[in-house]
Automatic annotation (TrEMBL):
Source species of the chain: Prosthecobacter fluviatilis
Higher taxonomy: Bacteria, Pseudomonadati, Verrucomicrobiota, Verrucomicrobiia, Verrucomicrobiales
Keyword Lipoprotein annotated: no
Protein's name in the database: Amidohydrolase family protein
Domain Amidohydrolase-related: 31-308
Pfam families: Amidohydro_2
Domain of life of the native organism: Bacteria
Record keywords, A-Z: Signal
Signal peptide residues on this chain, from the entry's feature table: 1-21
InterPro entries linked to this entry: Amidohydro-rel (IPR006680), Metal_Hydrolase (IPR032466)
Amino acid sequence: MPTRRTFLSTSLAAVTSRALAQTQTAPEPVIDIHQHMNYHRRADEHLLAHQQAMGVTTSIILPAGTYLDRPSTHNGKSNGLAAQCATTQAAYDFAKAHPGAYIWAANEVTDLDTAPAEIEKWLKQGACMIGEQKFMVQCDSPESQKLYALAAAYNVPILLHFQHQTYNLGYDRFHTMLEKFPKTNFIGHAQAFWGNIDKNHDQKVNYPKGKITPGGITDRYLADYPNMFADMSAGSGLLALTRDEEHTTKFFDRHQDKILYGSDCADHLGRGPGCQGAQTLAAIRKLASSKTVERKILFENSRKLFRLA
């Protein structure tokens, strides 16, 4: 018969072994800074399944602004971020129903007179970001600048969708905003942002292909301004990753402290060839030059920027 000391030692060893095994097999944390509710009418249960299948441990819900018929929403055609996405109240409710795994941003149509007050109302309740700002306004408009100042006042980032002649116009002038608002952390996203990693980018082409010449506008913004960050999400981000893999690895090394993983994916499954978010994850893991760079992009940079525990 084993002695009490032997029994306790054996039990402690078994518990330690199980804990070690669980630690070794636990998934590495991943922060997805760019997801939406009701994205192309995707149900909440499919959003939850999608993020879980991708292995995302924290997701940020980006809401749409108020549905309005005005030029900045392309007379209503761009309502719901042009994808039927839900507004801030729904994002808030969803995050509160799934604490820890989901957090939420605040948003409103940029040139609406009540936009600053509406967004501030949600920032006071704990919104972690302003965005996704996806409206047809000049990126340096007076209305935009009010939101940039608000982001600085509440120490939250603001995420902008840059698309030539469509959303947040005048990307080539955006350096003036980076200089004017040094305490505002800006996150760039979408076609104009990612196309302009190439020095020879044709601004009229939303989804360029082929080899990349370093030194484009985005490359310079990330290098020259500590308050500029990159959202890796959507088809534009995935294409930027995969069109020139040799460039991507060097780009990751140059800007390893500035790049954030986001999916912006409307898929229901979170895996397979139809899931752009999962493809982006795989590309980052493949093309990062080291595990350190990979973990920065998938977790550490977002954890620091959003001040997550």
